[in-house]
């Protein structure tokens, strides 16, 4: 097809300029198309707001009822307060802890159950994911500090995921055995801390037996969450 001289000269000139400038060498038809469209792109529609899965639980049960009286008797013989002592919390619907301590002869036991609920938030993520991150932090925290010989293991069959941390600690010359079980059930994290010591001539408690009891308590608390927590977003 015959090309006009001015148009042919324009094409040849564009072929010799650096690539960075090629965008400026557009054909007349291209400019015409831009004029027809007003020379500007249409504004894009706003993107949809991010969504996250609704959290399973929206409220915690009374933390001091997380374990039955029978369980408390078994784990903390002669507890000072069988009903437990609720520890201070700004909002017991999302964070709560209960403590039991007892001295049977020279056998000392201390049991703490802590509950932490995470709601789903578009900016922070789903309640389940946030709870999983917190559970990991709790496990790491249990293995640090003044404790020694910390041993961390994954535990099957308790909630959606669970981790145990076994350690030793010396307080005022007495040997303590500490067992912590951190469990996540949906968007709630349950932390069971079970410690024992033998005063005077009493033997130091068996770590394996303490861990078995701590796991049992964590499993019971998972069941309490399922029964006593309200579902919602």
Automatic annotation (TrEMBL):
Segments of skewed composition (Low complexity): 40-52
Bilayer-crossing regions: none
Keyword vocabulary terms for this entry: Signal
Signal peptide: 1-23
Region Disordered, annotated ranges: 26-52, 125-148
Protein name: DUF3558 domain-containing protein
């Amino acid at each position: 097809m015959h090309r006009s001289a001015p148009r042919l000269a324009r094409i040849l000139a564009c072929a010799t300029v650096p690539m960075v400038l090629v965008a400026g060498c557009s054909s007349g038809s291209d400019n015409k198309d831009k004029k027809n469209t007003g020379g500007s792109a249409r504004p894009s529609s706003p993107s949809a707001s991010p969504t996250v899965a609704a959290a399973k639980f929206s409220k915690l049960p009374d933390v001091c009822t997380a374990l039955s009286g029978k369980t408390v008797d078994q784990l903390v013989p002669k507890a000072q307060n069988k009903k437990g002592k609720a520890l201070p919390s700004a909002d017991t619907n999302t964070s709560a802890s209960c403590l039991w301590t007892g001295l049977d002869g020279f056998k000392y036991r201390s049991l703490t159950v802590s509950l932490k609920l995470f709601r789903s938030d578009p900016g922070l993520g789903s309640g389940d994911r946030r709870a999983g991150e917190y559970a990991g932090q709790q496990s790491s925290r249990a293995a640090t500090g003044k404790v020694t010989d910390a041993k961390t293991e994954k535990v099957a069959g308790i909630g959606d995921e669970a981790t145990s941390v076994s350690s030793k600690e010396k307080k005022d010359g007495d040997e303590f055995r500490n067992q912590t079980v951190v469990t996540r059930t949906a968007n709630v994290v349950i932390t069971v801390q079970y410690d024992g010591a033998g005063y005077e001539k009493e033997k130091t408690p068996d770590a394996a037996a303490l861990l078995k009891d701590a796991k049992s308590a964590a499993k019971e608390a998972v069941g309490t969450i399922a029964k006593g927590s309200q579902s919602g977003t």
